């Protein structure tokens, strides 16, 4: 079942193609299978730069977990929006930039632009992890505007924008917003 | 082909800002870059010069506060900056104090004669470097020393003539929070930098207040200074 999940994620993304904003809905216990599918089975195999925006788990923790699971982290960059808020130790690496708070939404857009410029001509996948967490920190109107701008700018760049969502913990109005800013919501 | 009276544009090199200005600053204009502490004025002005050097313009900075070494150590490391720009003279950084010493002008006695000498020295420097980009960081230091408002206005308008003659586009850095002072009135353009506090978050902002000869956006933008240069995006309003 687990092996099927990460292959399924890659297959779904392959099916929709670039410039389509996708929301992936899954149960929380499938989290690492989904992430494996995104990073290992999809981005790495397509030689995509993967920009991972994390607003719930610090990048150092996440990176450590991915390496423990032997997920290929080459080409993976983090925009870490949570480490500062958690007052944890900031571990600076070449592939991580920090945004002081998940409420500094414009700065997240600018960090994506930064990685995009550094990537040059290479295609990219941008993962928003997760809409649930961003909804905790932000007012819905502001979050909607942010998601709309981010998704549209990524579509213009022919990137693969992916939003992670845990539907059981999602308020109806947030799910409705997700439906507006994403072209496709894929339940897994 | 350009019509008589048409003026070219000096590309700042910051993509978002050039887009707002319809292709950059009108050539030979003076732009006041104003804002409080920590808003990114010096870095943005420095990027303007580096981007100029990259585009084979000749860039000149007159600094009133820091030495070249100190300034260079405080500026973020841009991936597109090369030390050779300074070595080869594509970019020059001159301390105002040294320029004043050369023409025997004392900062404590900025009368009409001293101002004339200082302007002469600046003009000579621009001409000798064939500078088509100039930054004075900060103009406040000079204007504060001049004290007399009429003389300060004269200094700025004569500087404007020198720049126009030399086809040099200038950014004057100022820590003023408002733009209705003499420098704001004389400048052809004003870009305001700021710190916006939103629910405890501090965001760096930029807004073009005026730019003569240009139809431009007056939106407030959030900026981020990165090794790839200054990036900007409109301030989110959240439907408010």
Overview features:
heterodimer, A: 188 residues, alpha/beta, 7-stranded parallel β-sheet, B: 240 residues, Rossmann fold, 9-stranded mixed β-sheet, two-stranded antiparallel sheet, 9 helices, 11 strands, 36% helix
Summarize the structure.
The complex is a heterodimer of chains A (188) and B (240). Chain A has helices at 2-16, 31-44, 59-68, 105-119, 131-137, 140-156, 172-181, and strands at residues 22-25, 49-54, 76-80, 96-98, 124-129, 160-165, 184-187.
Beta content of chain A comes to 15-25%
Q: What characteristic shape of chain A results from the CA principal axes?
A: globular
Query: Treating each run of at least 4 consecutive H or I residues as one helix, how many helices of chain A?
Result: 7
Q: How many strands, which pairing sense, and closed or not: the largest β-sheet of chain A? A: 7 strands, parallel
Folded structure, characterized:
- The complex is a heterodimer of chains A (188) and B (240).
- Chain A is of the alpha/beta class and 188 residues long.
- Chain A is 47% helix and 18% strand.
- In chain A, strands 4-3-2-5-6-1-7 form a seven-stranded parallel beta sheet, sandwiched between helices.
- In chain A, α3 links the parallel β2 (49-54) and β3 (76-80).
- In chain A, α1 (2-16) packs across α2 and α6 packs parallel to α7 (172-181).
- Chain A is globular.
- The termini of chain A are close together.
- Chain B has a single domain (9-234), classed as Rossmann fold (3-Layer(aba) Sandwich), CATH 3.40.50.300.
- Chain B contains nine helices and eleven strands.
- In chain B, the strands form two sheets. A nine-stranded mixed beta sheet of chain B has the order 5-4-6-7-3-8-9-10-11, sandwiched between helices. Chain B has a two-stranded antiparallel ribbon with strand order 1-2.
- Chain B is globular and about 55 Å long.
- The termini of chain B are far apart.
- The interface between A and B is medium-sized, with 21 and 21 residues.
